[in-house]
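Researcher: I'm preparing a figure for a lab meeting and need a structural model of a single chain. I don't have an experimental structure, so a prediction will have to do for now. The sequence is pasted below. Please return the structure as tokens so I can convert it later.
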Amino acid sequence: MPDYGLDLEFGVFPTPDASRHHDVLELAQLADVLGLDHVSIQDHPYQPAHLDTWTLLSAIGARTVQVRLSTNVANVPLRPPVALAKAAATLDVLTGGRVELGLGAGAFWDGIEAAGGGRKSPKESVDALVEAITILRSFWAGEPGRLRGEHYSNHGLRPGPRPAHDIPIWLGAYKPRMVRLTGQLADGWVPSMGYADPHALTDLSARLDDAAASAGRAPRDIRRIYNIFGKFGTGSGLLRGTPANWAEQLTDLAVGIGMSTFIVGTHDPDFLRRFAEEVVPLTRELVAAEREGGPRDQAPPASPSGDDADRKTVATQEDSRFTPQQLAVPAHLVEVHDHLRAELDQVRDIVRQVREGHTTVGSARSVINTMTMRLILWRHHSLSPS
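Model: Understood. Here is the structure written out token by token.
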């Protein structure tokens, strides 16, 4: 299968456990501080132990500044498409364009029926999903409602607000018709380990490519998002070893099948730090090396010269005298200072923009307030004991 050449993205998939709501919010904030791309929340309104997905995403959006927010996936039978469109657009406006919308045709029909959603056949549920996507996209485009469908209607609706950006739609799809629909209409495909393990992904992705081509679309137009689960250790198997093992396996999924976004399920902040700080950068390096036609092993850095060479020689000699634990402290200080220098450069730039009349004092104050919040969160998580 081809590598579609898309930039890699990584995220976290925490369980929206109501009894641990503070932990869920802190994990989302940590993902933001660590530079991950996504915080993604499942949607089961009939599950008594779960927080409401949209309320939780709104709280996460208020506490983060960069990470994107997604449903994984929204339960369309219990989310009327007009209300869903307005909720997604509202959160997108409030977060500056950070919403991505995963949708599912429906499962666990006993729970859906108990919650008032009504039971649908497989054909009816997919037909309803097609109508819902039509309503979502027309709403976000600001088009007056014209649909009188079998399952949903928006005829005569005056839509609004429009979202801050074009919200991507992901579909959770495994069965043939849903895979075809994903190739025809969706921006992303989001399977999960356990429902589609790697040996099944190859066939499903090929079917997705065929559906996209039949609809006149390029297969690379559909981002392939994979919900993954595992643990670090010395065991064998998929995502059961060291961070290096994880990186090798994720690289195989990226360049061998075309998966380009990996969203890891966890509630453990230490696990998430290790994923973000070890697995993510190594996976990016390995995929880049594969795409450049090089070996899997990390290429050695270019030979330094002059003062840099002298400093590196001394550093190497000094490093050999200390344990990895002892070296972690100065390495962390370097990380802190690099972060502060980057923040200072951003402050200088926003001051320059105000001075030159390219932005207002109020806008500059908002940027600096956001940076302050990010710094507080970063310090809290980077200085807390692991």
